[in-house]
Amino acid sequence: MNLHYRVEGEGKAIILIHGLFGSLDNLGLLARVLKNDYQVISVDLRNHGQSPRSEHFTYQELAQDVLAVADELNLASFAVIGHSMGGKVAMALSELAQSRLEQLIVMDIAPVAYQEHRHQNVFAGLREVAKHTVSKRSEAETYLAQHVVEPGVRQFLLKSFAKGDNGYDWRFNVEALIANYPTIMGWQPVTPFAGKTLFIKGQNSEYIQNEHRSAVANQFPNAKAHMVANTGHWLHAEKPDVVSRIILNFLQS
């Protein structure tokens, strides 16, 4: 699985990993800040962006894909930053690359299996768009809005709705993501990672809760936590300057 990725800047290497329905552009504001001091590698996970498609979609496989990028770039050591599902990929990577991973930053996700189905409306909207021949994004948004009421969520999804050789289509593999959704929401605990780790939570987000503390401590015994006030799950998009500063302080500490 040869992932599509982008390399910017020079210095110590940092790998950025986007979340579900995303692409390497999702952490672009963060990459723009970090590339001034670091070599930043932004990846498209399998079944997302311009990376290959696959029916197989476990966190072990996703982490192995990212590690293959690090190998291709001959990175002896690196830091990794992941948001949401990408945070789980980053945590899985900590098990595969313990000796090479210098710092781990996880944005608004816990190392646990989530029981709640959070994306039924999104999948319904994506399938609704797929039923129609669409010639522009505004048409796609009309169909999407039948199921996805939040304008911000629609705009996020539409960033991955692009024109290809056969017209407009999603840049993520909708049916593979639906088929693997239990795995995406699930989690297999990893071998404890003793390296420097930071969990960043959006204050208004429900993805990291007090009851997750023991799972974090068991798998990441040296983890620190930072809460970003008045933000939700998309904390890096809502307060990019604050989140960038928190990340830089941690990387340079």
TrEMBL record:
<dbReference type="Pfam" id="PF00561">
    <property type="entry name" value="Abhydrolase_1"/>
</dbReference>
<dbReference type="InterPro" id="IPR029058">
    <property type="entry name" value="AB_hydrolase_fold"/>
</dbReference>
<keyword id="KW-0378">Hydrolase</keyword>
<protein>
    <submittedName>
        <fullName>Esterase</fullName>
    </submittedName>
</protein>
<dbReference type="InterPro" id="IPR000073">
    <property type="entry name" value="AB_hydrolase_1"/>
</dbReference>
<feature type="domain" description="AB hydrolase-1">
    <location>
        <begin position="13"/>
        <end position="240"/>
    </location>
</feature>
<dbReference type="GO" id="GO:0016787">
    <property type="term" value="F:hydrolase activity"/>
</dbReference>
